[in-house]
Structure formats: C-alpha cells, structure tokens
Design brief:
The chain has helices at 14-22, 34-43, 60-73, and strands spanning 3-7, 26-31, 50-54. By secondary structure, the chain is an alpha/beta fold. It has one domain (3-73): 3-Layer(aba) Sandwich (Rossmann fold), CATH 3.40.50.720. The longest helix is centred in the last third of the chain and has 14 residues, at 60-73. The N and C termini lie close together (11 Å).
C-alpha cells in the first residue's frame, strides 16, 4: 500500500485524491480549509485510510513540521 502526501487535495486535486484513495492508498491530505478537507475525505471510498491536516501550506515552517510529524507515523512513499 502506498503512503501518499497530497498538498492542496481539496481543490483541483479532489478527484485525484478520491481516485488515489479508491486504489487503497493511505493518504495524508493537507489543505487550508478544514471543512473542505472533511468533505473530500468523507467522499472517499476508504476514509479511514486518510489523515487530514488543515494548515496554510504557504507557511513553510508549519508545513515542514507537519510533514515531519506525519513521517513519524508512517513512511511517505509518494
């Protein structure tokens, strides 16, 4: 099973996020809007495989810290 990091997965990438999830991949989805994150995750076939992180990914320090923290839980492969 791939462990995939999707940055901005609620906008133009929302369908790609759902497709990756349907393939059985574990996703870490980062986006600014927590409500949209929840909706995208709920629309996935396997929402239990998703970790959602709400933050402004233009804040590079917060983004880096979040990715490092997530990598403690699983190795991000893609």
């Amino acid at each position: 099973m791939d462990n995939i990091l999707v940055v901005g997965g609620t906008g133009m990438l929302s369908k790609a996020t759902q497709w990756l999830n349907a393939r059985g991949s574990r996703l870490t989805i980062i986006a600014r809007n927590e409500e949209k994150l929840g909706k995208v995750s709920e629309c996935c076939e396997y929402p239990e495989n998703n970790t959602i992180i709400s933050l402004d990914y233009q804040d590079s320090d917060k983004l880096q810290n979040s990715i490092q923290e997530e990598q403690k839980n699983m190795e991000i492969t893609i």
